[in-house]
Amino acid sequence: MSRFFGSRNALLATVAVFSVGAGVAQAHPTVANQPWGSTPDGKPVRIVTLKNGLGTTARIITYGGIIQSVETPDREGHVQDVVLGFDNLKGYTVDSAKGGLFFGAIIGRYANRLAGGDFPVEGKIYHTDVTAPPNALHGGKKGFDKNVWTIEKTGTNASGAYLTLKLVSPDGDQGFPGKLTTHVTYTLGTDNALSLHYVATTDAPTVLNLTNHSYWNLNGEGSGSIEPEVLQINADGFTPTDATSIPTGQIAPVAGTPLDFSKPTVIGDRLRSDNPQMMYARGYDMNWVVNGPYGQAPRLAAKVYDPRSGRSMEILTNQPGLQVYTSNSLDGGYAGVSGHAYRQGDAVAFEAEHYPDSPNHPSFPTTELKPGQTFDYTTTFRFSNK
């Protein structure tokens, strides 16, 4: 592992020192929520604003559990939104929904792709709708991103401001077996990190893969391309795919390929590579196999730095994989909060999750969830302007 990441003990020590320092500064986290319109079928939606008292603000809407914005200061202290999104509900429920772009949303029941929409559970084959032909993408025609979640609790504590959302997905929802109860807790901490803690249980055997699909641009929402940003990914391998983005079942080394971000690398340097994996995806849209054990304490999966603004973001997770996506399908058809159209390469998504199509690859980490078991994963986005 390179010095960019450092040892896990050093990382934890750094976090501890930063947290203590934030406490000494006596930051005062706050949380507030208010109405934010209604869905086309009349369901009311609310927006919850989390502030950590250090200049960072996160806003989450109950439709799709969407991260609507994250505002954080640059090296000069200038606060900007660093998440692509919209300033009204219609932008999510009608406009961008047509393109299947999942701005900021919680993805479920199965994030990423399932080959042909088919998947086995204890020997029986189930089917969810094909939404990215010839495969299913992100959980069917009405996945978790298109549901209104319930606010279960909000509050503040010594760690920061938090929100917990709940969604009950009935047996058979989008073809998935079992009644599934999911909680996602968003915490904007006094360590300047936004954490998403996913907890889910089922009453019958099922498969589950949850993630968040925020589009990040550390130079500011609507500011153009992320090609100058510098990325490092803590992964020696990835899961190569066929031309339809379904894994072959192999885990291949990143060394010698445009997917090698083991050292800090400018995203734009190899974005136009003629490597077949890059050509299939029209940019980066692959699952990296994060180094280190999964399902335990979150470890550093990636870090991205924007030299223009001085902002950096670390992605920590206890998921086994990290899908990195350079917004290859943004085509200028949607304008965000800034009033600027979003185009290909205007953001990068970091989808911490299990591998694509895992139920159809027994050698991959399992995505099965059974009664009595708890799906329990955390992903953290930690911001800095130093």
What would you say about this model in short?
The protein is mainly β. It has helices at 8-24, 90-95, 276-281, and strands spanning 30-38, 44-51, 57-61, 66-73, 79-81, 106-107, 113-114, 118-121, 124-127, 136-137, 150-157, 160-169, 180-189, 193-202, 206-207, 211-212, 215-216, 230-233, 235-238, 252-253, 265-266, 285-290, 299-305, 312-317, 321-325, 331-335, 341-343, 348-353, 368-369, 375-384. The chain has a single domain, classed as Beta-galactosidase, Chain A, domain 5, CATH 2.70.98.
Question: Could you give the topology of this structure?
Answer:
Elements: H1 8-24, E1 30-38, E2 44-51, E3 57-61, E4 66-73, E5 79-81, H2 90-95, E6 106-107, E7 113-114, E8 118-121, E9 124-127, E10 136-137, E11 150-157, E12 160-169, E13 180-189, E14 193-202, E15 206-207, E16 211-212, E17 215-216, E18 230-233, E19 235-238, E20 252-253, E21 265-266, H3 276-281, E22 285-290, E23 299-305, E24 312-317, E25 321-325, E26 331-335, E27 341-343, E28 348-353, E29 368-369, E30 375-384
Antiparallel strand pairs: 1-2, 2-3, 3-4, 4-5, 6-16, 7-10, 8-9, 11-12, 12-13, 13-14, 14-30, 15-29, 17-28, 18-21, 18-23, 19-20, 19-22, 22-25, 23-24, 24-30, 25-28, 26-27
CATH topology category name: Beta-galactosidase, Chain A, domain 5
**Secondary-structure-derived class:** mainly beta
Proportion of residues in β-strands: 35-45%
**What is the terminal separation in angstroms?**
23 Å
Top CATH class: Mainly Beta
Q: pLDDT average, as an integer?
A: 92
What composes the largest sheet? 9 strands, antiparallel
Strand order of the largest sheet: 11-12-13-14-30-24-23-18-21
Counting structural domains, the number is: 1
